[in-house]
Structure formats: structure tokens, C-alpha cells
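Hey forum,

I'm writing up a methods section and want to include a predicted complex as supplementary material. The small molecule is adenosine-5'-diphosphate. I've pasted the protein sequence and the SMILES. Can someone with a working setup run it? I'll credit the forum in the acknowledgements.
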Amino acid sequence: MIEFDGISKRFPDGTLAVDNFSLRLPSREITVFVGSSGSGKTTLLRMINRMVEPTSGRILIDDEDVASLNPVTLRRRIGYVMQNSGLLPHRTVLQNIATVPLLNRVPKAEAVARAHELMETVGLDSALAKRYPAELSGGQQQRVGVARGLAVNPNILLMDEPFGAVDPIVRRELQEELLRIQRELAKTIVFVTHDIDEAFLLGDHVTILSRGGHVAQHGSPDEILSNPASEFVADFIGADRGRRALTLRQSEGRTLVVDGTGRIAGVLGAETATGPVSVGAGGRDEHLGEITLGTEAADLPDLDTSSPNSGELGSSPEAPEVDTPSPNLGELGSENEAPGVDTPR
Ligand SMILES: Nc1ncnc2c1ncn2[C@@H]1O[C@H](COP(=O)(O)OP(=O)(O)O)[C@@H](O)[C@H]1O
Ligand SMILES: [Mg+2]
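Reply by user p_vandermeer:
Happy to help. C-alpha cells for the complex are below, copy them as they are.
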């Protein structure tokens, strides 16, 4: 279990990114933090592995205060996947995946074997092992990013808008793939997104955040959909859904197309109906059967003002929040920390 206990983060320039945030995230399930840009999602995520240090409060992992753990070791045992995959451009797919295990002194042969295994896990053809990131599609790069996040076999996987930069169809594939992987591996996943549909699709638990990391609502997708806690939440889930998402629902042998406000927008031909299926009260909980039409909002990149810290793995703990825009070299630290990655023994 990951527990946020009264966590606040004020950056040196005075920005209060997170204001007294408390939440328990159950193990082996997916918790999604969803909110618009600037609501504090990334800051919350990075405090878990101490890429950002809180100003006050505690974060416990299985009752252990992360502040008492060595940040570098902590980061090496928590998987981290970011939006632009964060791959090292001058290293092959295999080397990218094996980097952190090698940093952890896993013998090279073992790290390589494990990297091949992980490529299979995330649905990458082994023929791609020797390619460089630039020679992959966006979706393939993200798969490598996920494989790399899993490489140290972490209990915890942090994912920061990992599928935000790929087109909607590929994103859908990656989402399904993540759910499949999670059914097999059952990690404790903290997933950040600004896309409410993605949150409802992936999350066992969804936390809707407003500015300052304030919890507007926390619950299962069904709880939130059937009982929005406030107008803010209703707007957040409703505006999006009304505009973009239609849901298919079975009723009396017909397939109804229902819009985000619960109104029936149409009926599909009888041959597509799979028979009567009962629908929960309120009828708005069928999020898994959702189809998404239109892409305008889903395609907008998060206008994220922050970027990954450089040298996260090797940075000194006292300067963690100096955000220099170097996403590709980001969390893997400097070159000289990866002995044996490039040079075959
Ligand atoms: N290193 C930083 N220095 C100053 N302000 C920051 C820094 N990183 C993030 N912020 C600010 O903190 C707030 C939350 O940012 P962030 O956690 O990145 O939000 P999100 O991931 O939800 O878009 C924003 O107002 C952002 O501008
Ligand atoms: Mg962010």
C-alpha cells in the first residue's frame, strides 16, 4: 500500500503544487490520478519515488516512510514510465530495457534474457531488439518504456501520461495491453492522465484532482459516474463525455447508444445485440463497453510546464526539483552510471 499522509509541496518559486493531500492506494491495483494540466498529478507521482521532495507530510510504502530510504535505491526499485517514453536515443531497445537492471548489478546475461522476456510481455517483436528508439513507431516506443519500467520487477509502477503522445487507436491498444499485463502481473500502479475516459477505463480507483492536488472525488469509476460528488466533478466527467464519448448498452435485446448525459442517442441494428444484459442503477456504469467518437480533446497534449528532472537516478537528494527540460536523458541519469551497457564484456 502507498499512503500519502498530509503531503504538501511548495516549489521554491512559491507555487503550491500540492496542498495537504492524503490518500491510501491499495496494493496490486491501478489507481489513476486524473485532472487538468497543472493540478499537481506529476508532482504527486514524483514524490512517491523522491524525484520531488515534499515540503511537509509523509509518504509510506507498506508502512515504511520513503524519506527514510535512499532515493537512488528507491528509484531503482520503482518502475517509472513517462509520456515520451524517455528512452535513451543512442541506445538500442534491448539496452534501454536492460539499463536499470545493469545499474542494479544484475549480471549482463541475465539482464539481456530478462529484457527479451519483457519485450514479449509488452508485445514487441524480438526482431526490434537492436533498433534505436528513432527507428520505432510512437506506440512501439511506449511499449519499450513500459518494458523498461517493468525491468527491475518492481512492485510499484508509476506511469505519467504514458500514452498521451500516441494517436487514439494506438493508445487504445496500449491501454488494453496494460490491462492484460496487469491481469498477469498485478502491480501497484499509479497512473496519471488528463483524459477522464482513460481514467475510467484503466482505474480500479480514480482520484479526480483540482488545482493544488485537491481531491475533488475518489472512488471506483462506477461510484464516480453514478454519483458525482460536486458540480466540478460532474462537469469534468460530463463535459468530456457528452462531447466525445458514447456508450453502448444492451437493453431488451437491443443495443442502445447512450450519450454522456445518459440520454439515448440511437439504436444499433438488432443483429449487433448480444441479448439482454442488466444495467446498473443510473445506467452510467458501463464504462468498459465504451466507444469514443471524435478526437479533438483527447488529442490535445497536456501543456505540462514541468519536465523530467535530469539525472534523477543519480541526482543528489537536495536538488531534486530543478526541472531542466531533458526528457530523453531524464530518469536514467548520466552515462557513466551505466557501466557495461554499451560495452560488451
Ligand atoms: N519545478 C517546478 N517549479 C515550480 N513550479 C512547478 C514545478 N513543477 C511543477 N510546478 C507547478 O506546480 C503545479 C503542478 O504541476 P504538475 O504537478 O506538473 O501538474 P500536472 O502534472 O497535473 O500537470 C503547476 O502549477 C506547475 O506549474
Ligand atoms: Mg504532469
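Some notes you might quote in the supplement: Confidence is low (pLDDT under 50) at residues 270-345. Residues 1 and 63 are 8 Å apart (CA to CA).
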